[in-house]
Design brief:
Helix 9 crosses helix 14. The chain is an alpha/beta fold. Residues 92-105 have low confidence and may be disordered. The chain is 40% helix and 12% strand. The chain has helices at residues 19-24, 27-35, 53-59, 78-88, 94-100, 111-123, 133-140, 156-169, 191-203, 228-235, 247-255, 268-271, 309-312, 316-335; strands at residues 9-13, 40-45, 66-69, 109-110, 175-179, 207-211, 221-223, 240-244, 259-262, 277-279. The strands form 2 sheets. The protein has a 6-stranded parallel sheet with strand order 7-6-5-8-9-10, with helices on both faces. The protein has 2 domains: 9-140, no CATH class; 157-335, Glycogen Phosphorylase B (Rossmann fold). The protein starts with 8 loop residues before the first strand and ends with a helix.
């Protein structure tokens, strides 16, 4: 495409999605710059999700030449309408459909659509979903980056503020971030088990700090009401992050902070490929996991297991033991 200044550019459209998705797809920019060094890379996103989180992620990726904010559902490509209509027909209220399919003729690459095109047919195969999303997105853009590692660059000013906060609140403590919740509740632990994890971490001499926009646990330190651009440098000051398959896990993994991932229905192999850390393997807990969006135990039909029994079988002591291992690893790295 040619912009107003006649220089070629490539537009990437990401309408919706979570923090983890947008961090994972950040490597697409690296791949595009390496393949098209003379092009400007324009990234289209939204500012409404979790207080501008997706916009913050885009603005902290130096590979994007320009970031445009277009709120849903202002812009949708023709191919998006075709694909989403095939897989999600009759699942959206009629008035929303009318707004959603106000189409644009801009030949943008829509990364939501790429996932749907791969994941839904893959679910019907014996192998299931085997590709991590960052690979799906890069293939959709026709690039193979030199590294699939996610990209988020904390500024010097942001890091300085976080270091001062850590000095005032966490000095002398081994800080463990704990991701409490997920936007998709089917990936989240019950509050009772989360409380047990935090209390057991405290008993082990660690200082858990919950990372959640609104939720806290009595007697446990917390970070709430912080925008992503302020939260990222604070996570950078932590020794380890323990989290369900949600934003904090991907934020820590992007920053190189060791993570202990808590996975049940979703597959850690496809979600944590580039991160330092370890995760619960639901395959060892129950025969139907990971079920990845099928959720047979929650279908309302007869099934031999209780809803999300894979998550309820996760042992608190096992999570804390893994955390202690990564604390020691982080200490050894910091000394070297």
């Amino acid at each position: 495409m040619l912009g107003k200044n006649k220089s070629p550019y490539i537009a990437i459209l990401r309408q919706l999605g979570g923090i983890g998705d947008c961090l994972s797809l950040s490597c697409v920019a690296r791949g595009l710059q390496e393949r098209y060094p003379s092009h400007r890379l324009v990234y289209v996103t939204s500012n409404i999700y979790l207080g501008g989180s997706l916009l913050d992620i885009a603005l902290h990726n130096p590979f994007w030449s320009e970031v445009l904010v277009i709120e849903p559902y202002d812009m949708t490509t023709r191919n998006t309408k075709k694909v989403w209509g095939k897989y999600f027909s009759n699942q959206t209220p009629e008035i929303e459909n009318e707004l959603l399919w106000q189409m644009s003729d801009i030949p943008a690459i829509c990364l939501n659509t790429a996932c749907v095109l791969y994941e839904w047919p893959a679910l019907k195969t014996p192998e299931g979903i085997t590709k991590p999303r960052y690979q799906v997105w890069c293939e959709a853009c026709g690039v193979t980056p030199s590294s699939y590692a996610p990209i988020y660059v904390v500024t010097k000013a942001e890091r300085k503020i976080a270091e001062q906060y850590a000095k005032e609140h966490w000095s002398g403590k081994t800080v463990i971030g704990v991701g409490l919740s997920a936007c998709d509740k089917k990936r989240a632990l019950g509050i009772g088990k989360l409380e047990d994890i935090c209390k057991t971490l405290q008993t082990a001499g660690l200082h858990p700090v919950t990372i959640d926009p609104t939720c806290t646990i009595p007697g446990v330190d917390y970070l709430v009401n912080k925008r992503l651009r302020d939260l990222m440098p604070l996570i950078e000051q932590m020794q380890v992050v323990v989290s369900v398959d949600s934003g904090p896990l991907h934020m820590a993994g992007t920053l190189g902070v060791p993570v202990v991932g808590i996975f049940g229905p979703t597959d850690f192999k496809a979600r944590m490929g580039q991160y330092l850390g370890s995760a619960t393997d639901s395959r060892k807990l129950i025969d139907c996991a990971p079920c990845w969006y099928k959720f047979p135990c929650n279908s309302g039909r007869w099934f031999p297991h209780k809803p999300f029994e894979c998550l309820s079988r996760i042992a608190v002591n096992g999570i804390v033991e893994e955390t202690l291992k990564w604390v020691e690893y982080k200490k050894s790295i910091d000394k070297s």
